[in-house]
Amino acid sequence: MARTHARVAGKSGSTRPVEADLSFVTIKEKEVVKIILAMAKDDIKPSIIGLTLRDQHGVPSVKALTGKSITAILAENDMAAKIPEDLFLLTVKADKLKKHLGNNTRDTHNTRGLNLIEAKIRRLAKYYKNNNRIEAGWNYK
User: What is the pLDDT of residues 65-75, one digit of tens each?
Assistant: First the structure.
């Protein structure tokens, strides 16, 4: 039985090395920051910016190269989103599921899925409120 929302199973997958090997990276830190800011002006999400830097520019880790994450670079330049990307995407997913359940009221499997997504939104919002990443009065509706 899969426990995808029970928060008891650990993360699986490969781990990053302790120190990132940046010897093969030819792009400089200032160029990376310029690319990040240019892509952010085009309303590209930070996760997509990271993937683009990895795939097209050969930057394995922005944080290892610049000392800051993509969201920290955006925050320094007043380009950060008001709501963190993961929380925003979860709310979009929940809205789509609510629309589906409006047309398919007897879909009990997706009703449970909506409950799990909303629980995850509440947990994540609580974490972001405690770390002052979102406003204290923010509520999911």
Answer: 999 999 999 99
Residue 111 and residue 24: Cα distance in Å, rounded? Answer: 49
Dist. CA 125–CA 51, nearest whole Å: 25
CA distance 4 to 62: 29
- How many Å from the N-terminal Cα to the C-terminal Cα in the chain? 31
H helices present in the chain, as ranges: 29-41, 46-57, 62-66, 70-76, 85-103, 108-130
Residue among 5, 14, 20 nearest 67 (CA): 20
- Which tops the pLDDT comparison, 41 or 21? 41
Which distant-in-sequence residues (6+ apart) come within 8 Å of 46 by Cβ? 40, 70, 71, 74, 85
As a whole-number percent, the residues of the chain with pLDDT over 90 amount to: 82
Residue for token digits 């999911």? 140
Note the pTM of the prediction, 2 decimals.
Answer: 0.81
- Residue 53 C-alpha from the chain's centroid: 16
